[in-house]
Amino acid sequence: MLSAFRSALATPDLRRKILFTLGIVVVYRLGSTMPAPGVSFKNVRECAAQVESSGIYSLINLFSGGALLQLSVFALTVMPYITASIIVQLLTVVIPRFEQLKKEGQAGQGKLTQYTRYLTIALAVLQSTGVVALAVRGQLFQNCSVPVIPDQSVFSLVVIVITMTAGTALIMWLGELITERGVGNGMSLLIFSGIAARLVPEGGNILRGQGGVVFAVVCVFGLAIIASVVFVEQGQRRIPVQYAKRMIGRRMYGGTSTYLPLKVNQAGVIPVIFASSLLYLPQLVSQLAASPTGEVSEWRRFIDTYLVNQSNWVHISMYFGLIVFFTYFYVAVTFNPDERADEMKKFGGFIPGIRPGRPTSEYLGFVLNRITLPGSIYLGTVAVLPNFFLDMTGGGGAQNFPFGGTAVLIMVGVGLDTVKQIESQLMQRNYEGFLR
Amino acid sequence: MKLFLQITLIVSSVLLVLLVLLHRGRGGGLSSLFGGGMQSSLSGSSVVEKNLDRLTLFVGSIWVISVVGVGLLLKVA
Questions:
Q1: Which UniProt keywords are listed (chain A) (predicted)?
Q2: Is A392 among the domain residues?
Q3: For residue A345, what are the domain limits?
Q4: Same structural domain, A286 and A245
Q5: pLDDT digits (tens, 9 = 90+) for A247-256
Q6: Domain ends where: A166, A181, A202?
Q7: Which ipTM score applies to this complex?
Q8: Cβ contact (<8 Å) for A176 and B27?
């Protein structure tokens, strides 16, 4: 293992890539702490400290690594890009032109990416306006008396909005630079760095608040969760595929037997992200409808107790149900058994014992449906776990809890992916890598 | 001074957004986010991309300088 690290750093090509990636991540982290122009750094610090302990912005803060609550130039982080790609992905089902582009392969995929980028900027304008409006009206930091933005003229507010939008564009570029010239997928690495940055302070909170024994238990527990997540992430069903031998001219082609891997968790963390963004909506509504007089209406109390409160069983079971639903939904969007069966038939492949064409696609659909069930239940369980340990983190946002839930799913997913990429780069030089 | 910095900020922000959008997207979309999907983009960057990179870097540094400048002015004031 360690010798693999050494040889990774000894390869000049790979070393340059890794260093480049680290450099970009450093730039990103620096930008996350730089306050946007017109935002009073001192006041924001004061307010953020108050709000962070109440833990309402769990998911958004998780992705931003605390950048949003500091109103930094990178306050929106990768959120607009993620939202934009989710929207574009979903639109491929609805709009025929998008579906056509998706089927076109490389060129069509590039066009879709370009659409995603335009949409990202549009969303960034919207979201930054929203954030700034909330901050000005004092709703971003409730119960905080000092003004976050001292100069509240329209011009200076516009400057903040435009700066945050440009910051989002810059993040997008940084992510693409990593994807292009570094190792791993840029966007997910940036999210990863945001989560990892919270890991140490969050652990420190537990150590300070609950003492050494609880801290040790949490650490052991976290490691166990990580190990089990890795175990399930790597799990796959291999469906054997036999290719027929063909003679083209004097050369023999095909005749190989390979397999079609169906992962247990084909959908990755995306269902979790969908579900938590949906569950975030009622909270947002309740917050926007907050009356200045402080009286709480009936329906708001209902939302607050059942939907916003993360330790309530209604919230937990809804979260779980949504995750299971979205897992099936996303797998259906990304993996089309008919297409696979068609492709296989075209290249002379078949699954032993099953006729090519429709029976194959039915078989694939059957296997996929069955293997996705444990996958979806696993996803839901891991995501819901931290909600049961709410009091352990000292009442903080459950999803911020660094050793369980969304954070672990994302970290393990991104980590595995990145290591695999380094591995394949290493394979070009020598045979021994990290994973055996 | 502050007004000047703010105007520089607006101009450089708009330029930055446009320049980034001009780049060929290499994001790969959602499928390659969070694991899954494979990547094999081995094509090098073209001359256009290289010059665009330089220009973006230049505008980006102006942007950073003016952000820091406005921040400092606010701190002093």
A1: Cell membrane, Membrane, Protein transport, Translocation, Transmembrane, Transmembrane helix, Transport
A2: yes
A3: 211-403
A4: yes
A5: 777 777 767 7
A6: A202
A7: 0.83
A8: yes
